[in-house]
Design goal:
mainly alpha; 3 helices; 74% helix
């Protein structure tokens, strides 16, 4: 198999895993009404890639392995979406208290 064919297969697999990763991310974004969804998207995609790559590394390199890797990518994206939204909620800034009125000794 040539280098170009191997590269085409890799691009195809990563594209499939990315498309699969969008579904749990969209569901999680709708559930939280978009709060933290922007941070969760890259985490969901990377988690899907990691789960998808893990399946062939274990040894499933046939058609069944491809479909198992899609399921693993979906589950990885679920975990990544949840982790991303939880991380975004932890990053959410607490509302600042208004500053106390300055005590002006000259004017009083």
């Amino acid at each position: 198999m040539t280098f170009e064919a191997r590269l085409a297969f890799l691009i195809f697999f990563f594209l499939c895993w990315t498309i699969v990763a969008l579904f749990p991310w969209i569901a999680a974004a709708l559930y939280v009404r978009g709060r933290g969804a922007a941070i969760a998207l890259p985490l969901a995609v990377v988690a899907a890639w990691a789960a998808g790559v893990f399946v062939p590394l274990v040894g499933m390199r046939d058609v069944t392995g491809f479909f198992v890797s899609l399921v693993a990518a979906f589950l990885g994206a679920c975990v990544g979406s949840i982790a991303g939204i939880a991380f975004a909620r932890r990053l959410k800034a607490t509302p600042a208290r208004p500053a106390d009125a300055p005590t002006d000794k000259l004017g009083s």
